[in-house]
Amino acid sequence: MLETIASTLDRVTGVQGSLGYVVIVILAIAFRAFMDAWMKGKRISKGSKSNDETEDDGPEPARNYTEAQLLKFNGSIDKTGRFEVTQQVYLSLNGTVFDVTEGKNFYGPGGPYELFAGHECGVAFAKMSFDNDHLDDMDGCEKLTNSEKHELIGWMEKFTYYRAYPVKGSLIPNNKLSPSDRILSKEEIAKHDGNGTVPEGYAVAPIYIGVGERVFDVSFGGVEFYGKGGAYERFAGKDASRALAKMSFDPADTANTDTSDLSEKELKVLNDWVKTFDERKGYPVVGKIAK
Question: pLDDT digits over 68-84, tens only?
C-alpha cells in the first residue's frame, strides 16, 4: 500500500522519495497546531487567575494628583519595594497631567528636558524657559501674555493630538487642596463618595475615607479601588477605620465607627492602613474625624 502511494507521488511530483517530504510537512503542521493550542491554553490560564488581576491589566481611570505624587513620576528607579521599578514619566501643562513615557529619551533621566519630569511646566513651556522658577507655578499660567498663552495652547495641542500622550488626570496645586485641619462629621464625609460634583480643576470628584483620626481624599490615586465598581467602593464616604482594622466587608463593621474594642492585632492593622494611605499612597489629608 505504502509502496503504491510512494510510487504514485514520485510520478506526480517527479521527485524521488517524495513521500518522506510529505510526511515531514504533515508532522511540522501538526506540531505547529499543537504549539498554538498549548500557548492559547497558557494565555487563558494566566488571564483567569482573579478578577483583580484582570482589572489591573486595563487602563487606569483618570485621577487627581498632588504635587508630591506627581514628582515621583520622573522616570527614576524606585528601590523602596521588594523589586526595583522604573517609574513612568509624567508632566503637567496648566494642570493637565500627561504620560510622556514614550518620549523618555527627551523627558526621562539623562534627557535634554529631564528637569520637566514630575512637574507642572505650563509657564516654562509658554516662555520656552529652563528656569526652575517657572516650574510648579500653576497660578503663573493665568498671568501669561497673549502670545505666551498661545504658545502654551500649542504645546498642549501637540501633546494631545500630534504626540498622542495619554492624559492621566489633573494636578491640584498645594494651595488648592482642601485644608487638613477641618473637623468633618459623618454626614459631611458621606457627601464625598465619588458621586458628587467635580470641583473646578479636578479630574474626578473627591472620595473621602476616614482612617484612624483623619480623613483622606482617595480620588488622588485610589479611584480604581474606592470609586464606582471598585473592590472597596463600600468604604467611600465613610469612616472605614473599624472595617479596615478587621479586614471586614460585614455591614455591621462598615456602618460601625467604634474602634474602642479592637484587639491589639486589629489596631496594628489599622495603623498599617494609616501608614499606607499617608506615606505609601500619599493621599492628601482633608480633615479630621469629628468625635
Answer: 999 999 999 887 767 78
Dihedral of alpha carbons 191, 288, 97, 281, sign: negative
Q: Do 56 and 46 meet the contact criterion of CB atoms below 8 Å apart? A: no
Give the whole-angstrom CA distance, residue 41 versus residue 84: 31
Instruction: Give pLDDT tens digits for 6-51.
Output: 565 456 455 555 555 544 545 555 555 544 544 444 333 333 333 3
| Residue 58 CB-density burial (10 A; 0-12 exposed, 13-18 middle, 19+ buried) | exposed
Cβ-contact 286, 189 below 8 angstroms:
no
Quick one: cell of 204?
A: 474626578
Which residue from 138, 127, 82, 76 is spatially nearest to 101, judged by alpha carbons? 76
Kindly provide the b/e burial profile for residues 2-25, where b requires at least 16 CB atoms within 10 angstroms of the residue's own CB. eeeebeebeeeeeeeebbeeeeee
